[in-house]
Amino acid sequence: MAGSASEYIQHHLQNLTYGKLPAGYERADGTVIEDATWTLAHTAQEASDMGFWAVHVDSLGWAVGLGVLFLFLFRMAAKRATSDQPGGLQNFVEVMVEFVDNSVKETFHGKNKVIAPLALTIFCWIFLMNLMDLVPVDFLPQLFHLMGADYMKVVPTTDVNVTLGMSLSVFFLIIFYSLKVKGVGGFLGELTLHPFSSDNLVLKILLVPVNLLLEGVSLIAKPISLALRLFGNLYAGELIFILIALLPLWAQWTLSVPWAIFHILVITLQAFIFMMLTIVYLSMAHEDSH
User: Fold this and answer.
1) pLDDT in tens, 135-158
2) Secondary structure, 3-state, 96-142
3) Is 75 a catalytic residue?
4) pTM value?
């Protein structure tokens, strides 16, 4: 594990990365790779040198694993559902479904059977990923270190690749439903004829580049802001937990418990915000301008 405070922090913020190292690359231990090789990075520098196509194995693994856990729990609750005396899991799932369903009914003004299941999946999945932030920062990394993994980040939402991947998925849905509901003409009309318009044809044409710039920036900003908001809040929370872990044991308990209690609000709120913004954006995509 890391030695100094700086090394400790950098170690905990480094992902377990799998990527391709070029032929002739000299690794940190002095060995030289004769042929281009796909391998796990042993240092942060190696991870950086792997380039764009490198994969954060830990973020991807935990994200997929928690997604499967969500599906397993909800499927188990559905199979065991009863009207007699529901158990704790069924009650919890029913509360979650009702909560999300009410949120969709109040916010989404179109007709689409996909939105409610999508919103439920987003909220529960992001909540579970955020919840990993409450696991002691040294517990799982140390456990995986004993099994040979040099790095292990267990909170997927502290990886901007994960949050940006989810937000881009929402962005593609926005484009898809905008084109489906409004048509190509209606969608392009929104981008080029708003917010400024005129009855004068010449002036209307002159305003098209201005409208396209403003509406284009607004459209592109949606997935970026959606991703960075979630990433920034969880990354900051994780960093504070890491800083607390550097303190003496008595100080750790004094600070980590109140921060963990407060952080429960943060992780829930961030999952809720991501879900609600997704519903709002998709509701706007379903508004027919004709």
Assistant:
1) 989 999 999 989 988 899 999 999
2) HHHHHHHHHHHHCCCCCCCHHHHHHHHHHHHHHHHHHHHCCCCHHHH
3) no
4) 0.91
